[in-house]
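Give me structure tokens for this 176-residue protein.
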Amino acid sequence: MNAFGLNRLRASALPSLWLALIWVVADQVTKVWAETHLMVGEPVAVWPHLNWTLAYNYGAAFSFLADHDGWQTWFFSILALVVSVALIIWLARLPRGWSTEVVGLNLILGGAIGNVIDRIQAGRVTDFIDFYIGSWHYATFNIADIAISLGAFLLILSEFWLKPRAQKRKARKARA
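Here you go.
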């Protein structure tokens, strides 16, 4: 190992960060598409129960704190950056290779960075995916939100189902 610990970092899950980068790029490209092809609040039918509808979110999930004076933009940006650094540190401590945990962390990281880019550039997050049933519409969301939700699901799956199963299997082998 050299003085900077580069061998340890190469043996970590950090090389998997390309997955987060793919989600950031996909998120930003789809948001540019939405802003150039959609009108704010004008739904475009895609499939039954799915529209493209351009919307801007000045708050957090479900427009939480959207009606404040703008401090929330910086608060959520700083929070997302702090969480992103924590996720990168978490990835640096995991062994190299693919696991449900590594994929989940990368999805959350990619989504967080995708939305923070919007907040820093425009003071808002661009949303355009509108899922609905009848007259009920779920909160409009974007590719970054999908990544964060899917990543959170994978982390929960890993922590509460996959890891305990692996520990039980390991304990059985130790007893045998």
